[in-house]
Design goal:
Blueprint: E1 3-5, E2 12-14, H1 28-45, H2 47-63, H3 67-74, H4 76-101, H5 104-110, E3 119-126, E4 136-142
Helix pairs in contact: 1-2
The structure holds zinc ion (ZN).
Length: 148
């Protein structure tokens, strides 16, 4: 028997000799994660699958009118989260448009004059929660102590 590391939980499990290329253990949450990953891949790569999913979801929604209205009422925190993430996605699209319209020399001049002096801690989106403003992307930099 060959021990295989589950890509989802990191635990080792005994691989079946009949199933090659096993990646997930038998745990329910790992099997669900594997299925979700397969569906995400299928949605990205298979136009027929995508069309079938869309039409069956549409049919289901017609049989269950008011589902999303009820869902949003029952889950206000998820509704708020989705609203924020959507405004981030809208901001990303808008800022990509803006960058495409910009002259490349303008973009170069926007860079920090000496970026090597700073260590990037991460890139974050600042999303206004109350005011209706665009989300803006910011770089969080660590300024060295020797910086004048
Ligand atoms: Zn697992």
């Amino acid at each position: 028997m060959v021990e295989i590391e589950c890509v989802y939980c990191g635990d080792f499990f005994e691989g079946s000799p009949r199933h090659k290329n096993q990646t997930a253990c038998k745990k329910r949450k790992c099997q669900n994660a594997k299925k979700a990953a397969w569906q995400r891949h299928k949605m990205k790569t298979d136009p027929d699958y995508r069309a079938n999913q869309k039409s069956s979801q549409k049919r289901w929604l017609q049989d269950n009118p008011g589902y999303w209205k009820k869902y949003r009422r029952k889950n206000p925190e998820k509704t708020e989260r989705n609203r924020i993430l959507q405004s981030v996605r809208n901001g990303k699209i808008r800022s990509t448009d803006r960058i495409a319209k910009m002259d490349s020399s303008l973009i170069a001049k926007m860079d920090a004059s000496n970026p090597d002096r700073f260590e990037i801690v991460g890139q974050f989106w600042m999303v206004p929660v109350i005011a209706k403003m665009d989300a803006s992307k910011v770089n969080i930099l660590r300024i060295p102590t020797c910086y004048p």
